[in-house]
Amino acid sequence: MKINLYNTKQEVAINFSDYLSKLIKQNKTVHIALSGGSTPKIVFEELASNFSDKVDWSGVHLYWGDERCVAPTDSESNYKMTVDYLISKINIPQENIHRIKGEEVPSKEAIRYSEVLVKELPQENNVPKFDLVILGMGDDGHTASIFPHEINLWDSKNICEVAIHPDSGQKRISLTGTVINNAETVAFLVTGEGKKEKVDVIINKKGDYKQYPASLVAPKSNNLIWFLDTAAAEEIKKE
Ligand code: 6PG
C-alpha cells in the first residue's frame, strides 16, 4: 500500500491527474473505472483544464465503478457528472465510453454491464481486469456503492450487483470486490475532515475496521494507492 499525502484537495487533484496522465502515456490502451463523488469532480476539472491536449485520449476507455439508478440526464447521475466536467471537454471517441445505464431495470443492467466488462476488458483469474479502478470513500466507510449494511455484496461472485443506499433507498449498480480487487491498480481519492476517522481505522486496521467495505479493498496485485489530503489524514498523521 502506498499513501500519497497532499496539503489540499486541489493538490490531490493536481497530483492524481499527473499520475493518470503518465499512466495513459505509458500504455496504448487503458481501461479505467471512474467513481462518483466530490473528489473525482475536482480531478475531472483539473484534467479538463490542464490535460485535455496533453494526453492522447484515443486509447483511454472509461467505465464506472458505480452508478445511481437514475436517467443519464439526472443531476444524481455519475455519468452526467463525468460528461459535464470531463468527457465534454476532451477529445475521446464515443465508443470508448462504457456507461452503466442507470435508467434500465437495475437487475438486468447489472447483468448487461457485467457482460460489457467481460467483452471489453482483458481477463486474469477468469475475471475482467481494469488497469485502474478509482474509488472514493464515504464518511460511513462505503466504497463504490457497497455500503456497510450490505457488505456481503463485496464478496459476490458476480461482477456487478444492485445495491441500495441506506438512507435514501436509492438503487445503485456497483462493481463488486471480485472485479475491484482484480485490477492492476486501485486508487482511493479521499479528502476532507469527514473522512479522518474511517481513514485511520481502515489504514491502521483498528477495532471494527472490517465492517467497512473500504477496508476490503486489497488488490491481488498489491497496487493500492491512497491519495489523501491532510484533513482526511489528520488522525494517521498523529501516529
Ligand atoms: C458515489 C460514489 C461513492 C463516493 C463516496 C465519496 O457514486 O456516490 O462512487 O462511493 O465515491 O461517497 O464521495 P466524496 O468524494 O464526495 O466524498
Explain the layout of strands and helices.
Elements: E1 2-6, H1 9-26, E2 30-34, H2 38-50, E3 60-64, E4 66-68, H3 78-85, H4 106-120, E5 123-124, E6 127-128, E7 132-135, E8 160-164, E9 171-175, H5 177-180, E10 185-190, H6 196-203, E11 224-229, H7 234-237
The structure holds 6-phosphogluconic acid (6PG).
6-phosphogluconic acid binds at residues 35-39, 66, 78, 136-138, 142-144.
Computed structural class: alpha/beta
**Structure annotation, total helices:** 7
Uncertain runs with pLDDT below 50, 5 residues or more?
none
H/E topology pattern:
EHEHEEHHEEEEEHEHEH
Q: How helix-rich are the residues, as a percent range? A: 25-40%
Biggest sheet details: 6 strands, parallel
Ligands (ions, cofactors included) = 6-phosphogluconic acid
User: Beta-strand level of the residues, as a percent range?
Assistant: 15-25%
Principal-axis shape equals globular
User: What's the gyration radius in Å?
Assistant: 17 Å
Mean model confidence by pLDDT: 97
Q: Care to count the β-strands?
A: 11
Widest β-sheet, arrangement of strands: 1-11-10-7-2-3
Termini separation comes to 17 Å
